[in-house]
Every structure is written in C-alpha cells, then in structure tokens.
Amino acid sequence: MKMGSATPVRGQLVSRRADAHVASRAQRRARTKEVAALTAAPIAHLPASGISAVAPRFADASVAFTARHAQLNADATAAQRALAFVETAAGQLHGLKRAISTVLGDAEHRRDGAAALIAKFGALWRDRAVLTGGVLDAQLVVHPAADAVCTFRMRALDVEQWRSGGAETLVFHPAGLGKQPVSVSFGDAPLDAAAFARGLDRALACTGVRAALAADGQIDFTVAESRWPTVRDHLMVQGGGRRFPGGRPSRAQVDAVPEAIDPARWRVTDRVAQRAALRDVVHALDGLTQADRTLRAQLDTAGQALQGDKYGPAVAQAATDIQSVSDALAEAADFKVLSVVTSTLFGLSRGRVEALLEH
C-alpha cells in the first residue's frame, strides 16, 4: 500500500491526508457559522401563515378550547342534576298513581299510604329550584343555561284597562323603595296590546324583569326564579292617577302563574278528590316525560360536542403545521426554508398526526 508523502510544518512532518482533513474541518466550521447566521436571520420573505406556524403554538385556540370544554362540562353536570330530579319525581308519582288507583278500586282500602306519598312528593317539589339548579322551572320547561324564570302578572296592568288611552307615566320599584326605579310613559293615543307590552319590556329590562304579550292577550312578566321572592314582596308602582294610583308608590298585587304541578291541591278524602288527584298525577307524569326527553337530548348533544372536540387542538395545530411546511417549500430551497421546516416539524407529536389522519 502506497503511503502519502509528508510536508514539514514548523519542524514537524504532516501527511497530505492529515492536511486535507484539517482543511475539511475548517471548511465545515465556516459553513456551520454561515448556516447559523442564516437561521438566526428574520424570515421576512415567507408568507404570514408560515411565520405564524413557527411562532406561538396557538395559545388563544387552546384557551378557547379549554373554556368551551369547561362550559360543556358545566352544562352536562347541570343537566344531569335536573335529570336526576326528574327521574326521582317520576318514580314517586308512579308510586302515587298506583296507590290512588288501588284506593279507587277498593273503597275499604286505607288512604293513609296515598296521603303519605302526596306529602313526600310535595316536599320534593318544593325543593325543585335548588335540586335542579335553575335548569327546570315550575312549568317543567328546561333551561339549558340554568336561568329558569318565574312568570307572574300584575292585577292593575290589565290590557283592557289601559286600552282606552290617556297620557300617564308609571314608575316601577321592582326591589322596593330606595332601589333602582324605572319609568314608562304612554301618550293620549289608544294603546295596542303589543305596543303596551313592548313599552313595559323596554322600561323594565334593565331591572331583570321582562314583559311579553301572552296568548290570552294579557301581559306576562318574567323574572329569574331566585329574584321572584324579592319582586313578589317589594314591587311598588306609582301611576298618574288615571288607571293607577298617583301620589306615593303603592304595593303592586302580583300573582305567579300556577305551576305545572301543584301537589297542595291533591286530596284522597273522597272519590271525587281521588279522581281529580289521579288526573293531575297523570298530567304531571306527561310533563316530566317531556322534560326527561329534553334533558337526555341535551346530554347527548353535550356528549357529542365533547367527543368531537377531543382532538380539536391537535387537528388545528397539525393543519397549521402542514400549511407552514407547504408555504416554506414553495419558496427557494435555501437554509432559511430549511430552518422553517425544521422548526415546524420539531415537537410534532404522533397524536397530532393520527388526529389529522382520522379527520
């Protein structure tokens, strides 16, 4: 084997092969410095989508995703609480239905059992607002946002009484004297029922009380269930002396719309009362069945949304990573492009890729 010749360097013998190796190392170091400088330079010529992909990893999207999941979980938990109440109430009413039917079929059968079941259900129904967390109101209407309301009417605000016209100003004190009052004025022109309702609604909306025209042509007012006791006990109104008393504000007479279920009316003292109670129980079961369906549909929707969002951040990030690489490769093949591609692929997990492929 032929050996390479040697060249003296400061008194030492260095082979040509070693000399070439030293030169190669020097070239590599110089090239590395050039690459580092290019990589550190601002990526000004790349599209905005490519730059954004290697910048922050979608902090805003992650925050929005987390908030959405928290809200979906809260909604699902509230619906589950309400559903548990509905199932318990339905179970008790089925038992009461059997007990009343037994009493009706056998005149000698003691009525104590049915009366005890009525009392038990009455206690459960009184706790409805607390047990359902505002999801199920007294009319068995489901409120997914847990904002159940109480519907009531004011005796002095009868549409027929106000239809005749005549200028008058009403001042409302929904929370009593000393609290935020609101006023609404009506002119001399005869009032249309819908316009009357709209005027009241606009005036009262800022206090949390809403007004709407009911199916029977009268005005229905609504307020959050939690605020109903305050409105019921403290609402005061001052008029102009035409249709509503003037002078000092007076206590408004308000009546809540009858609840869908009223166990206080149920009696088993005689056959007439028993039949009436049985009809009410059957009607209540129908309402609870509908509420059950609505709540289960709400839970299904929340579950599907949670499942659909399972890979949300991964899919969004993977799609952006792909766009970044695509934009970068469309540019000239220099070291700036290489730096973008490398930065984009760094940290791209298997989960992101699998999530993208699944979609």
What does this structure look like?
By secondary structure, the protein is an alpha+beta fold. It folds into three domains: 60-134 and 262-308; 149-256, Immunoglobulin-like (Sandwich); 311-359. It is built from twelve helices and ten strands. The strands form three sheets. It has a four-stranded antiparallel beta sheet. It has a four-stranded antiparallel beta sheet with strand order 5-4-8-9, covered by helices on one side. A hairpin with a 5-residue loop joins strand 6 (210-213) and strand 7. Helix 3 runs antiparallel to helix 9 (271-308) and helix 10 crosses helix 12. The longest helix has 47 residues, at 59-105. It starts with 5 loop residues before the first strand and ends with a helix. 21% of the residues are buried. The model is unreliable at 1-15 and 34-55 (pLDDT under 50). Residues 1-27 are annotated as: Disordered.
User: Helix count, per DSSP?
Assistant: 12
Order of helices and strands: EEHHHHHEHEEHEEHEEEHHHH
Major sheet: arrangement of strands: 6-7-3-10
Helicity level: 55-70%
Strand residues, percent:
5-15%
Category from helices, strands and their pairing:
alpha+beta
What shape does the CA trace take? flat
| C-alpha end-to-end distance | 63 Å
Question: Spans of 5+ residues with little confidence (pLDDT < 50)?
Answer: 1-15, 34-55
Number of domains: 3
The major β-sheet equals: 4 strands, antiparallel
Radius of gyration, in Å, reads 38 Å
Whole-number average pLDDT? Answer: 79
Number of strands: 10
